[in-house]
Automatic annotation (TrEMBL):
The name this protein goes by in its record: Hydrolase, alpha/beta fold family
Sample GO molecular function, one term: hydrolase activity
SUPFAM superfamilies, per database record: alpha/beta-Hydrolases (SSF53474)
Keyword Hydrolase part of the UniProt annotation: yes
Superkingdom of the source species: Bacteria
Keywords: Hydrolase
Chain ranges of the AB hydrolase-1 domain: 22-252
Gene3D superfamilies: alpha/beta hydrolase (3.40.50.1820)
Length: 262
């Protein structure tokens, strides 16, 4: 069954004739977990923002998650009404999907932004997923939904002023669109075996990471930026869900053009 990916447009004015952004989330998360960020991005940049779900997550929770990032990408692309061009922002595993999109279809992608992502050929497994985080994920699986989502929030978010509201909402999402243990395992497998390309797939590439990330070591992003020779911007305290903790900081770096790397 084909679904239309949710889209956001500016509230105060019609979207300008700018390239839309596509936002891609990570492991066992769906488009609703972006919270207010897509609308904030649409309003600041005066553009359309598209938020597809990946197979096994969100409204696609009944589908089997692919064991390969490229296969995940192809399933995502089938959901979109157009073939681009797009600007991509990928968080965590979403960054791997975004990277493959830009590598395989460079004519469709104008800009690539990776947030707290990692590549298996550049970082060891214990940095790509901290052992303490893996233990917390495993222990949370048998917990009631609200308790599980609270543990996830505390692991990926450092800004806690909206903890109760977010956890209550996330628990609703988990009940409406539950991610199966099998799909969680398949997504973990796909992410674990992913190897990034030798060179940046598009010249206009930016890496963002956060020092407070308890899920993925921020050094993973540093390794990508260093290997590719692209800019890296680091938030001093935010967690893995950087777009929740510091949305304006992220958007500020999307507004400002990158220097010519030639």
């Amino acid at each position: 069954m084909t679904h239309r990916s949710p889209e956001y447009i500016p509230c105060a004015a019609p979207a300008q004739d700018t390239t839309p952004w596509v936002l891609l989330r990570g492991l066992a998360r769906e488009q609703r977990h972006w919270g207010r960020f897509p609308q904030q991005l649409a309003d600041r940049l005066q553009c359309r923002v598209i938020c597809p779900d990946t197979p096994g997550n969100g409204y696609r929770y009944g589908e089997k998650s692919p064991l390969d990032i490229v296969l995940t990408l192809e399933r995502v692309r089938c959901e979109l009404a157009t073939s681009g061009p797009f600007q991509l922002l990928g968080l965590s595993m979403g960054g791997m999907i975004a990277t493959e999109w830009a590598r395989l279809y460079p004519e469709q992608i104008e800009r690539l932004v990776l947030v707290n992502s990692s590549f298996g050929n550049l970082s060891p497994p214990w940095q790509r997923l901290r052992p303490s985080a893996l233990r917390r994920i495993a222990s949370s699986l048998s917990k009631p939904v609200f308790v599980r989502e609270k543990q996830v929030f505390e692991m990926i978010c450092q800004r806690r002023d909206d903890l109760e509201a977010c956890v209550a909402q996330w628990a609703i999402y988990a009940r409406e669109c539950p991610v199966s243990r099998a799909n969680l395992g398949r997504q973990l497998f796909a992410a674990a075996r992913y190897r990034g390309p030798r060179n940046p797939p598009t010249q206009d590439t930016l890496i963002l990471n956060a020092q407070g990330d308890q899920l993925v070591n921020p050094g993973c992003s540093s390794s990508i930026a260093r290997h590719w020779g692209v800019p890296l911007k680091t938030h001093p305290w935010a967690g893995h869900d950087l777009t929740h903790d510091a949305p304006e900081w992220v958007i500020d770096h999307l507004v400002n053009p990158l220097p010519d790397m030639n």
